[in-house]
Amino acid sequence: MQAPITILFSDSGQENTRTLSDHLRNNDFNCIQFKSEKELLSLLNQTSIHLLIYDLTFFEEKTAITLLRKIQATFPDLLIIAVVPEGAEDLIESVLQLDLFFYIHTPYDPAEIRIALQRAQAKLSRRKAPVARSKQEETASFHGLIGQSQSMRQLFELITMVAEDEFATVLIRGESGTGKELVAKAIHAHSRRSKKNFVPVNCAAIPDDLLESELFGYTKGAFTGALQNKIGRIEYANGGTLFLDEIGDMKPSLQAKLLRVLQEKEFEPVGGLKACPVDTRILAATHCDLEQLVKEGRFREDLYYRLSVIPLSIPPLNKRKEDIPLLLAAFINTYATQRGREPFAFEPHALMALMSYMWRGNVRELENLVQHMSILYSGKTVRLEDLPEKFTADFDPSIPVDLPLPADIVQQIEQAQPLALTEAVGIIPTTVADISWESGQVDFNELIDDFERQLIVQAMRITSGNKKEAARLLNLKRTTLLEKMKKKEMQDL
Predict the structure, then answer these.
(1) Residues 176 and 301 in one domain
(2) What is the pLDDT at residue 227?
(3) Per-residue pLDDT tens for 244-300?
(4) How far apart are CA 492 and CA 131, in angstroms?
(5) Buried b vs exposed e over 343-368: b needs ≥16 C-beta within 10 Å?
(6) Does 180 reside within a domain?
(7) Domain assignment present for 136
């Protein structure tokens, strides 16, 4: 039996809060309430919280979104459900831009709360227990990394080896989209630090003037607005692993402070006068040539050698094309399961076009394609002409292509059979006549949700992806359509 999910939410003393509290406790959640911003941050830092229900009306209007961004950046694994007042379109727009896990309205709708909590439970369960996969997928998957090519098998072996030395730094090299963070997570998962925090930081995504305080934290009064002490990512990763992505973008002054952490195992918060000891393994990643940056004087040579005790390279997708069918199968299965839809298949020439494509965006680009196709072609066979133009522009189906494909897929291509790369997981009824009543009941909310999805897909097709026009076509406010697309994970349409 799994331990109950711990949920943190505000205590405003109002009827709405009591309604939410009663609903949560009646469903055996472990509930913790906070009465101030200070208490909220303290609980997040000191307690293992799975889910935060963040009521924006509980905080001052000017700081609510700023604080939410801060929490999202500091606790990247925390699931956050935002609570916004019905009709507050500007607030809803701001929340949508944050790409949170979910959001609900006030006054609380019990059905909406139930759906949000069910999705949270499902997501947390997937983190704890991997979804069952086929034998082929199982042997080709390694902590989220997928591949059976020789280069990927060698990578899996290297990860296992370097994970054993929990103090050695690792420099992960790879093009954008190859999965550098997945490699870092795999190293952490295989190490003795696996039960402690894995803390990722994208050095290119955080402005230089904020990165220092994000990494090292700060003391009360260190600068204007520093009203209390704040721990940084390095301290949050104490005992665990800190992953610094795009390390080449770090400014020289921060490079010097990071070097001290690696050499002395200590750091000073911004505004602090006392060194703090820390036991954090540091993994770094880059897509650029650090040696060249060292020659140009843009990256410290001593830090480079400290970070690259063990260099590790991830092959680009166009160098391991035999893994493409496995990746397609995994992503098709993932998105079909998440959305409760039927997987799609590939017409032979469509797969050949994908195998011939250069994939400059690597695995991320391939996953984005599958996500797009899973919405538009659920239960269908994708033909060559259905693929976006960039995937077919340089492909000539009349020219034989020597592709490194598994024997069963080669046979299907030779026989011109549709390539069903993954098994079906369910069929969505499209009309009332299609609904099966044999079980004695149906899931009303699920059926309505599926119908709404189909309406949105059709509207987006008709308007060529113009959300404003699609909203007009559906007689909805634009923000209402955006809300529905966010909740149904359809933002990429």
Answers:
(1) yes
(2) 77
(3) 999 999 999 899 999 999 999 998 888 888 888 999 999 999 999 999 999 999 999
(4) 24
(5) bbbbbbbbbbbbbbbebebbbebbbe
(6) yes
(7) no
With cut-offs at 50, 70 and 90, classify the pLDDT of residue 134.
very low
Cβ atoms within 10 Å, residue 117: 21
Beta bridge partners of 345: 381
> How many domains does the chain fold into?
4
With a pLDDT cut of 90, the percent of the chain lying above it is 28
462: its two tokens: 């008709």
85: β partners: 106
Closest CA to 257 of 303, 295, 220, 221: 303
For the chain, the average pLDDT equals 81
Rg (CA), the chain: 25
Residue range(s) defining the domain that contains residue 451: 432-487
Whether 421 is in a domain gets the answer no
Instruction: State phi, psi for 484 to the nearest 5 degrees.
Output: -65, -40
To which residue do tokens 């007042």 refer?
85
- Do 340 and 256 lie in a common domain? no
Q: What pLDDT is attached to residue 255?
A: 94
Q: How far apart are CA 473 and CA 192, in angstroms?
A: 55
Letter for the amino acid at 54?
Y
Given a cut of 90, is residue 306 above it in pLDDT?
Answer: yes
Residue 138 has pLDDT above 50, yes or no: no
Q: In the prediction, which pLDDT does 158 show?
A: 92
Tell me the pTM. 0.57
